[in-house]
Amino acid sequence: MPERYIRHPEAGDLPAETSVWLVQNSGKKYSGAVSMAYNFEGGPDDESLVAGCNGKAYPHTAIGRHGNFLQWGFGEPPAKMTEDGRKLFLNCICYIREFAGHPPLVRRQTMNRRCAFHYKAFCPDLVKEYEGREDELYQFCKDNIELLRYEQKQLSVNTFEFMFPIDSELKELGIESNRRIDTLEKLIALLAPKQAASQTKPGFFGRLKAKRTNQKRIKTARRLLTRYTGLDFETHGQWRRWLDEHRDRLFFSDFGGYKFYIIPEGYRAAPAPDAKSEPFWFPR
Amino acid sequence: MRMTDILYRNAWCLVTVATLWLAPAGVSRTSAQKIDLDVLYAGNPASERTNDFAEFLTRHFASVETTDLAALTEEQARRFDVVVLDHDARRPPRPRFSQGYGVPTVTVGATGAHIGSTNRLKTGYL
Q1: Burial class (CB in 10 A: 0-12, 13-18, 19+), A228
Q2: Contacts of B104 in chain A (CB under 8 A)
Q3: Does A108 contact B120 at a Cβ distance shorter than 8 Å?
Q4: What is the pLDDT of residue A112?
Q5: Beta strand A151-154 with A259-262: parallel, antiparallel or unpaired?
Q6: Which residue ranges form the domains of chain B, and what is each CATH number?
Q7: Whole-number pLDDT of residue A119
């Protein structure tokens, strides 16, 4: 097992030795390229098909698909592929043929939230709060991974800094995730007129306070809905109709800017991941 | 659990599963036992690498053409079933495709990763 794999923070309990399948005889330690496994986020347009032995970390992707693009990460020409490698290369060509007319649904805008752990790019306020207690900071962010977002600050034309803060507005509303459909349900429910009535308190000042609190919640809910959908409807009814119409075709993408997207009719979507399963490369 | 998770966890059966999973469904072979696809290989036309790929692909596919990756256009790519993008230069050409480009495309090695990054794909460089 490459030492870099074992030393990597995401390594987990890797065995000292493992069997590998040889695709090419390059005569070099590594020849080719891998893509970041986190980018393959279980979206309808992506599949991480085969991990590749690489100089970075297990289990980055040697063969992966994004829409109609299939990356064959191995760098050697057929003469230097093994016989099995040549067969798999042919199969990859045939496989991608099935995705004619199905381009990627999202393009890179931001990084997957798992990169927060990879790059240790946590919110500066949290880093300060947990100074000297890195394990606790790591655990806190892991516990709140469902609420992480991405922020980027351009420092110059070619340089920028990024971080993954926790969405405190969602957290204050008692919502546990920014990428589940039921989050949209909860936010839209906050816009409903009946919400105001249910929170009415007795007395003039009580009613005034309840009204103000409710207005604030409505404003926050609208801002969050726009943040995570890119849309800006005026009324509860409009949001409701939009969600009812697209619920079955919605998916969330970190890679595509921490937003919900709609799968077009007729799009050949990859199978959805089991929501309860945690990818085995989850940061440890 | 996703299929990919299962694959990763069972590396020893990766080949078998991948070979079956990626089996060329819907793709037939011609009487000469070639796969009935028109393939375009776009690479460095003056290189031995291009000859190697072209010879290999010609052995297996019904129709294979080669072209210069630096001169590849979407219009040209649309005439083929699958396009293979490759190059042997340290700083290879990186064609940029429109968002609606839907031709099945295989990108190879580091050149492919550069093309993935240029086109803001998940298959881009780490």
Answers
A1: buried
A2: 68, 70, 96-100
A3: yes
A4: 92
A5: unpaired
A6: 26-118 (3.40.50)
A7: 86
Q: Which residues pair with A51 in a beta bridge?
A: A61
Burial class (CB in 10 A: 0-12, 13-18, 19+), A200: exposed
Tens of pLDDT, residues A138-154:
999 999 999 999 999 88
pTM, to two decimals:
0.86
Torsion, Cα of A37, A122, B119, B122 (10° steps): 20
What ipTM score was computed for the predicted complex, to two decimals? 0.87
Per-residue confidence at A74, pLDDT binned at 50, 70, 90? very high
What are the backbone angles phi and psi of residue A153, rounded to the nearest 5°?
Answer: -120, 120
Cα(A280)–Cα(A3) distance, integer angstroms: 19
Distances (CA, A) of B8 to A41, A279, B13: 15, 10, 9
- The type of residue at A148 is L
A positions 4-33 inside 8 Å of B (CB): 18-21, 31-33
Of the partner residues A32, A102, A277, the one whose CB lies closest to the CB of residue B109? A32
Q: What is the mean pLDDT of chain A?
A: 88
Give Cβ neighbours of residue B73 (< 8 Å, ≥ 6 apart). none
Q: In the prediction, which pLDDT does B41 show?
A: 98
- Give alpha helix (H) positions in A71-203: 83-97, 115-118, 124-129, 134-143, 168-172, 181-190, 194-198
Place of tokens 């921490």: A258
Instruction: Determine whether the interchain pair A107/B120 forms a contact, defined as Cβ–Cβ distance below 8 Å.
Output: yes
Q: A16-34 burial, b for 16+ CB within 10 Å, e for fewer?
A: eeeeebebbeeeeeebbbb
pLDDT digits (tens, 9 = 90+) for A80-129: 999 999 999 999 999 999 999 999 999 999 999 988 988 889 999 999 99
Contact B122 A46 (CB under 8 A): yes
Mean pLDDT of B112-116: 97
- Interacting residues of B102 by C-beta distance below 8 A, sequence separation 6+: A67, A68, A100, A101, A102, A103
Each domain of chain A, given as residue ranges in start order, spans 3-97, 109-166, 168-262
Is the distance from CB of A122 to CB of A129 less than 8 angstroms? no
Q: For the segment B9-22, what is each residue's pLDDT rounded down to a tens digit?
A: 444 334 334 444 44
Give the pair of three-digit tokens for residue A240.
Answer: 């409701």
8-state DSSP, B29: B
Checking DSSP bridges between strand B82-85 and strand B105-108, what pairing results, if any? parallel
